Input
Amino acid sequence: MKIIKTEQLKIRFECINGCSNCCRLSGGYVYLTEDEAAAIARFMETGEDLFLNWFVRWIDEKLALVDGPEENCIFLEDGKCTVYPVRPKQCRTYPFWPENMKTNERWALTKQMCPGIGKGRLFSTEEIAAILKGKDLDSER
Ligand code: SF4
Output
């Protein structure tokens, strides 16, 4: 996987309370696994069948949430994630997505979008590499 230079991978990050920019990335998809869909269904107490009928669709043979109003995340309400404790890994690992870190230009755009980059605790090169490989990012919103 090609990512920006190693020495640039020590990055401060903390999700900023009240921000929901990454829940409003229009044109993008929130992909989730079947296990994550089941966890959200349990959290919402909807039942899995109902959840799969109402809240997800298939995009390129991958499960994704349907869009909410104005292409925001369907679970964004009053600027807050209503399924936060069981949000998909895609949400838990933002902004450290491989596509965001492929080039300096792409990372610069991500920094413009995410005010939490440059704040909070320092993530080491090793932690960022692990997140890029799929480890969960443990940050609070
Ligand atoms: S991860 Fe960044 S863009 Fe997303 S809500 Fe937190 S501060 Fe905002």
Summary: Helices lie at 34-44, 48-55, 89-92, 104-113, 125-132. The first helix runs from residue 34 to 44. Residues 20 and 79 are 6 Å apart (CA to CA).
